[in-house]
Recover the amino acids of this structure.
């Protein structure tokens, strides 16, 4: 699987785990704030199978909680991975993948923090396949 940040300065490749890619959604306050979104879509991948293809020098790191490093593009701010350096895996930001990974989310965590204002299936929400007309 290959992915890149919004501006394209950083690109990476990640091999899914042997048992297959498990995608999840996290609604914890840290993920929501870091991604400016009601949840973060993640998948854990083996550290040994994660490689920077370009732009590693543009990657910045911030420790969001003890032992958890968030790695992001220093130009556009796209979060790329969360990293606990003592673990054999990294937490990949699935929305940065350049192609459909072929699997769908299998879990939702920290649901007690879900925001009440975001329900994409709520009655009255108009859906557009692209940008709405002016």
């Amino acid at each position: 699987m290959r992915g890149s940040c919004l501006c394209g300065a950083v690109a990476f490749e990640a091999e899914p785990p042997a048992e297959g890619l498990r995608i999840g959604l996290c609604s914890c306050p840290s993920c929501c704030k870091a991604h400016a979104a009601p949840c973060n879509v993640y998948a854990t991948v083996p550290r040994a199978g994660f490689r920077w293809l370009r732009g590693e020098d543009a990657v910045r790191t911030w420790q969001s909680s003890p032992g958890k490093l968030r790695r992001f593009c220093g130009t556009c701010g796209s979060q790329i991975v969360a990293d606990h350096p003592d673990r054999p895996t990294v937490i990949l930001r699935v929305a940065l993948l350049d192609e459909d990974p072929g699997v769908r989310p299998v879990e939702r965590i920290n649901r007690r923090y879900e925001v009440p204002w975001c329900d994409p299936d709520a009655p009255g929400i108009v859906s557009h396949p692209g940008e709405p007309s002016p």
Summary: The longest strand covers residues 40-46. The mean pLDDT is 94.
